[in-house]
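Record pair follows.
FIRST:
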Amino acid sequence: MSNDRVLDRDRTALVVIDVQEAFRKAIDGFDEVARQTGILIQGARALDIPIVVTEQYPRGLGDTVPEVAEHLNGVPRLEKTVFSAARAEGFDLGGRDQALVCGMESHVCVNQTVQDLLAAGITVHVAEDAVSSRTAANRSAGLHKMEQSGAIVSSVETALFELLGEAGTPEFKTVQGLVK
């Protein structure tokens, strides 16, 4: 029984978009989004979920912030100048047909990535508490557009518990510790 409305750890890839240093002072709620992104990455690693990370023009916007990068040991960063991560050279979900998306900015790179993934037949879940934009209005507009286009707006905790599927496992204890 397959249900696209619920994330499945064997079908999901995590897509982390442009959580970079230059956005720190410009983005509404940046520190919380970076913290939530770190939780998602740690959860994905505990559940053996592939992770794709992009950086928009890192020479100008800087590297992935340390509080996110510290959880990415061995995960390469795809440098891009296109807004949609799905159009970046080397972007690959590894055959997964569900994507859990987070990052910057809700109304630009996150939105365009989600639109391209949806057009490619990928089921997309967006972690609402792990995306933002320079303004609350743009964050909201991006989330609304993605949802209207068919993406499922969720949260970090909802996504991680869907991916877990059950309690009583070593992964459950890890994830429970991350979200507490």
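SECOND:
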Amino acid sequence: MASGLAATIINIVAMVAAYPIYLHFLGYERYGVWLVLATVLSFAQLGDLGVGQAVMKLVAEEYGRMDIEAIQQYVTTAMIILLVGGTVVMIAIIGFKAQIIAAFNLSTDNAKIVSWLLPFIGILSIYVLIVQALNATLSGLGRMDLANYTQSFGRCVAVIVAAILLYSGWGIESLLIGNTLSYMFIHIVSLICIWRIAHIRLLRIENLDTQRGKHILRFGGAIFGGAVVSMLGSPFNMLMLSRYAGVSTIPVYEIGFKASMQVRGLIEAGFRALMPEISRIGANKTRYAKGRISQISRRAMSLIFLFGIPMYLALLIFATPLLRIWLGAEFIQTIPLVFRIMLVATFINLLGVPSYYFLLGMGHVRDVFAARSITWLASMVLVTMVAVNTNHLSATIVSLCLAISWSLSSTFLIWRFRSAMMIYGKTVSSIERTNV
């Protein structure tokens, strides 16, 4: 959990260092061209189909049973699924290249650059999916600390390589090469760590297992569905703001949302270690496992109140001066209120995060999908109702709608986790009576 916080800080430092370098050598326009390519790469990650988190959960489960053969089957089968899904995405990127370029309304010179680099982005998208599966395997084997640090140092590699190439006179290709070498670094380090932990042999045709593939897709499908819903939610809010309040209100909402999510991420990053740990512990249904899960749950909530409340209170109090310092001449009076509402909203959301990862670890993936759907569908319904009935919206109102929807979602997650623990306890008691 500590590695999650440390990795988040490393990522923030890398991001802060990268922006000035990229803008200095490329300028806003050419860097914007790279962001177009990066956006395509981000959407290509939908080819993951939730397989990454499925691998993490299922590997952790089998590692709890010390079933190395099952781990090999899950990982190899997952990589084949990702190879097929990634290939479909790559073909779609290349096939719709002209439409992608037209959608972003690029100038002739920039369109040529994107047209030339898009096939490489398509190939990279396949490789990224495979690397992420290996990194998820490392997390499932109980070393999320190594997985976190590997990803973070991989980002540093991308920035360092791109900076060197840009300084040497290369253009936008520097960022593509930097990102490629970054994933190669993550790939190599993940493989070495996996081999040292479990001596897994992946390149064996006998590892392919149809039943394991069904388990992966069943679990990953719900994760994928939740991700799609989440991807639609925030853009919908921006669309409604643009339509009913004017495009100038979108940055106000965006700053409040992104800044508060970064604050939430400082604590939430550590909780990502809960899912594989709960999967490993819960694989053996015993009274000790139930007690251990309950103990970890209490400690997780204690951490939120111990560290989260002071941090959030400080930001709520000093929001205005901090935003003035950060934004300088671009500061406007409406931003602090939106930021404060978003802080409250993300803290409420944070209360449901432990239950979210516990439910994933226990295999209750439908509850996780339902929670994500509640968040964004409730938000969209509330925003639409206000807009239609009053013919008016503001960033403040949209933020309040999101706070309400996150309250509903967190309540649902906590309730479902408690229900799951009751069912788990009954299962344990039934097994103990059978053994007696």
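COMMENT: The first helix runs from residue 2 to 44.
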